[in-house]
Please model this.
Amino acid sequence: MSDHERLDTDCVIVGGGPAGLMLGLLLARRGVRVVVLEQHGDFLRDFRGDTIHPSTQQVLHEVGLLERFLALPHAEMPQVSMRFSGERLVVADFTRLPTVRKAIAFMPQWDFLDLLADAGRELPGFEVRMRTAGTALLREGARISGVRAEGPDGPVEIRARLTVLADGRDSALRADAGLEPVGRPSAIDVLWFRLPRAAGEQVPFMQIGDGALLSIDRGDFFQAAHIVRRGAWTGDDASFAALRRRVSALEPRFAERVERLRSDDVRVLRVRIDRLERWHRDGLLAIGDAAHAMSPAGGVGINLAIQDAVAAANALAPRLASARPTEALLRRIQRRREPAAMVTQALQRRLETVLVRVAEPGSVVPVPLPLRVVQRLPALRHAMGRFIGLGLRPEHVADARPKPGRRTRTR
Ligand SMILES: Cc1cc2nc3c(=O)[nH]c(=O)nc-3n(C[C@H](O)[C@H](O)[C@H](O)COP(=O)(O)OP(=O)(O)OC[C@H]3O[C@@H](n4cnc5c(N)ncnc54)[C@H](O)[C@@H]3O)c2cc1C
Model:
């Protein structure tokens, strides 16, 4: 064991997704020493969403990063519109939100995460270790005292006053902490693939008819998502034929492009909606999808992960630089964020009952009554915009001014 690298820090965060990087950045701004571990070598992964909501942009504004964010390539959506069984519907409107930005920004998540990581690296107390996977929790008696990880140069042990699990919906360390998620698997899977895009080409963001198709403009390609019944995709000829037929019917301009897809081009994303009943242990806190895995429905998971990070940083920063957080403090963070996560998940499940019907081949689902009502009443479109754009409990950065930092110590 003596060849282990050993570090002492205030907070070790497992997972460099939106929750982990934002928490690390906010804590480091408040003078807390933070080490973020990310198992991958970069953030170039396709399987997560691209939606940066007005409330997240507000947080970026509060920490002085909004201009840097807006300078990166992105698309903007002031209203959520869709084509549903041939009708164009506007289901949410962000234009009257009380935020500096009144539109969802679409930005590949790797650009957003790079921005957070780069901003963190400018602070002395922040360290992000790429290609470093948390493998086991460390304990002192009953208290969790850090994490053991495997990095490019071998094993490393990081001792910390607090260990944060921000390692997403497949978190393996939750079980090590004795935290088991509850919930049932989602009834849908998402097929995720790229289709080439001609310069300036526009297609509706969301189309629902015989199936559902989401097309995110990423410059020279569309990132497309197509919903199928759980387990329906096997990758065989019949699966491909169904995918080609349904996507071509939804968006005839894609017919030729979808013909050229090969099995390696299509990834199956298993959707889960679950949550921990308890987000904490002595010395440990779970946030983001590790605490409450969100489905893509409504595109709000990143936003909730960021809001968790802001609430956690606000509560933890005053204490972490000098003392261990008490369990009562960790419990308060869960109590603050849990209702928003639970209500959002309940709504995602309701939305899923529509999506399951849409996923059924040959289905023609009529426009659901609530969507019809939203069309008639602009006030409801703004209310939906508020729910999607801000979430149920928008969080604000408590102290946006950076403090002089301390560095993580190597033993
Ligand atoms: C198909 C699909 C589409 C989605 N689309 C959207 C959308 O458009 N908009 C939206 O807001 N939400 C969307 N979501 C939900 C959203 O992706 C999540 O809610 C959000 O990413 C949660 O952020 P997080 O930081 O908690 O976890 P994650 O984003 O999952 O990040 C966890 C990080 O931890 C790392 N990690 C895991 N284990 C370890 C380990 N042991 N050691 C070190 N690192 C580790 C992972 O590599 C990852 O980088 C979608 C979800 C799915 C399934």
Remarks:
- The chain has eleven helices and 22 strands.
